[in-house]
Amino acid sequence: HLSAVSGNATFAGTISSGAITTSGNVSVGGSAYTTSADLNLLGDGLAIKNDKAGSSNNWSLIQNTDTGSASNLSFTTGLGVALTLNHNKSATFGGAITSSGAISGTNGAFSGSLALSSDGSQLQLGTGNRAQIFHNSAALYLRTSTGGVNVQASGLNHYSADASTLYFSAA
After folding, report:
1. Partner of 73 at 20 to 30 A CA spacing, among 54, 83, 149, 167?
2. How far is 86 from 95, CA to CA, in rounded Å?
3. What is the pLDDT of residues 121-166, one digit of tens each?
């Protein structure tokens, strides 16, 4: 039983407790190194175990994976690194990104395919989405609400669906 202790207390071994209440910072693995955080963890990161269902090996890990003054915060599951929030404010995803809402930004690049997997889904371009490219299960549409459609190429060929018949060619 420990009560009314002021100052620092150091323990060795396992500490078992019920609820712990504090009016200051809590530090694990070292001294409280910042006054702007309520919980400070020094060391290899924070491991979280899912005891709700599944095998005994369903751990997740959150850790800083960089050195020096940089800070890359990585979220790792049993299958590997899922997300890294980088020091330069970028994010690196280890797998597919699924969204039930809009994803927006000012710049972006893809290496691989961009799939709009349901009929009627549109690639929308321009202010007010004035241009759309979409498929409705019967045909492909290029649509614009302002101006015309311009195609710039060294050649233009129109083939049958199986590419066996050339319908139109212009150089």
Report:
1. 54
2. 16
3. 898 888 888 899 998 888 888 999 888 888 888 998 988 888 899 9
